[in-house]
Design a protein that fits this description.
The protein is mainly alpha-helical. The protein contains 14 helices and four strands. Helix 2 (63-91) packs antiparallel against helix 3, helix 3 (96-133) packs antiparallel against helix 4 and helix 3 (96-133) packs across helix 8 (254-290).
Length: 399
């Protein structure tokens, strides 16, 4: 082994070694990866389902709100698959169903849901950029949600095709062990003990150092962190700068301008939440990038010594479980953003649950103010009904 792998002798001992239980890491895994993920995930699924029901109402059928429906769908996919994965590992559950479903469903679809959430947030930023900065070139009736949803879905699947090939299920025959048990314990009942037991293992592809280097580290860091962050920051800053010099007449009416601005405020809250919740994941990606050589050497060493594993520092292992919690939180909190920031969403939600009278607790635009605005801009109500009907139900953000 020494002759075949002379460079592996220089591997730092703290980076490679046999896995041992760390009490600090276990606490983070149990509480962050287990309790918090499961609790937040359940609440998040309920919130995302409510969001889809509200956003599906007739008054919220514009492109922006349809993109929010797609975002909620990706969030649910990630919460279900990712939440099950993190919770089962944190609580150390043993389940044949989980073992069988992990390689080709839970693991790849959790990554598809995560990438879909990231890409859809970027797509919504692009939609708002075009809607506010170029409203005359792309009026609301020309914005089609499928122009954004279809590329995002295709890209999320294509990026994660290798995830379907990283692990596989292997069935082990336990008949001999059962026979030995019968011999050792004469009165034991073994009829309910399965003779074939499933387990999953990583494939040679996942152990390939080049695959780890170029796909796991380089490609995924660029496609899920660097590019999305650059686009979101640039587009939203560009919108904020343009708002300072924008003219209301570009949108035809003050009501439509307030509507577009309120939708941007919703997007801005989504983007800020995204950046905060995905910061731990990005920090981990940056750390892996800076320690890539050590990771590759440990992977090569494991090929000859199965007991050798890559051992990141304790703080990275703890931050990994915090990252799981924060990513689930990011996919669970959008309903609250829509409810507190989206005036039309809030009104439609009250109507959906039969509490329309509760809207009296929120300020509304008075009839005299509406008439004054329509008079100033010489707009007939019938001509602007399709654009501002939903927004006239509640008072828009003051600008």
């Amino acid at each position: 082994m020494d002759a075949e792998h002379p460079k592996l002798l220089d591997v730092p001992q703290p980076m490679c070694g046999e896995l041992t239980e760390n009490p600090t890491v276990y606490i983070y895994k149990y509480y962050c990866g287990g309790l918090l993920v499961s609790t937040i995930g359940i609440v998040g699924i309920l919130g995302d389902v409510c969001s889809i029901l509200v956003l599906s109402r007739p008054k919220l059928q514009d492109c922006f709100h349809q993109l929010l429906i797609a975002l909620a769908a990706f969030d649910i996919l990630y919460i279900v698959c990712g939440g099950i994965n993190y919770t089962v590992r944190a609580f150390e559950f043993k389940s044949d169903i989980y073992t069988i479903a992990f390689p080709h469903f839970i693991y790849p679809f959790a990554n598809i849901g995560l990438c879909g959430t990231i890409f859809m947030t970027v797509a919504i930023s692009i939609e708002r950029f075009l809607g506010i900065c170029y409203p005359l070139h792309l009026p609301p009736h020309n914005r089609k949600s499928w122009f954004y949803i279809l590329p995002v879905a295709v890209l999320a699947i294509l990026v994660n095709i290798p995830k379907f090939l990283e692990s596989e299920v292997t069935w082990y025959y336990e008949g001999n062990a059962i026979e030995n048990l019968k011999v050792q314990v004469g009165n034991v009942t073994v009829l309910d003990i399965p003779q074939w037991v499933p387990t999953y293992h990583v494939t040679p592809l996942r152990r390939n150092s080049e695959y780890m280097k170029y796909y796991i580290v380089y490609f995924r860091m660029i496609i899920t962190a660097v590019i999305p962050l650059i686009l979101m920051v640039f587009l939203n800053l560009r919108i904020i700068i343009d708002i300072g010099t924008i003219k209301v007449k570009r949108f035809g009416s003050n009501s439509r301008w307030r509507s577009e601005l309120n939708l941007f405020i919703i997007l801005l809250c989504i983007v800020i939440t995204f950046c905060c919740c995905h910061t731990p994941r990005i920090i981990i990606d940056m750390w892996e990038f800076s320690n890539l050589n050590n990771i590759i050497m440990c992977i090569d060493l494991k090929k000859t010594n199965p007991n050798e594993n890559f051992l990141p520092p304790t703080w990275i292992r703890c931050l990994t479980h915090v990252s799981h919690t924060m990513s689930i939180l990011n996919s669970s909190v959008n309903f609250l953003i829509y409810s507190f920031v989206g005036h039309t969403f809030r009104g439609e939600f009250f109507l959906l649950i039969g509490c329309a009278k509760s809207c009296r607790f929120f300020p509304k635009t008075s009839n005299s103010r509406r008439k004054q605005e329509h008079g100033v801009f010489h707009q007939k109500p019938a001509e602007t009904t399709d654009i501002i009907e939903g927004e006239e139900k509640g008072r828009m953000l003051d600008v």
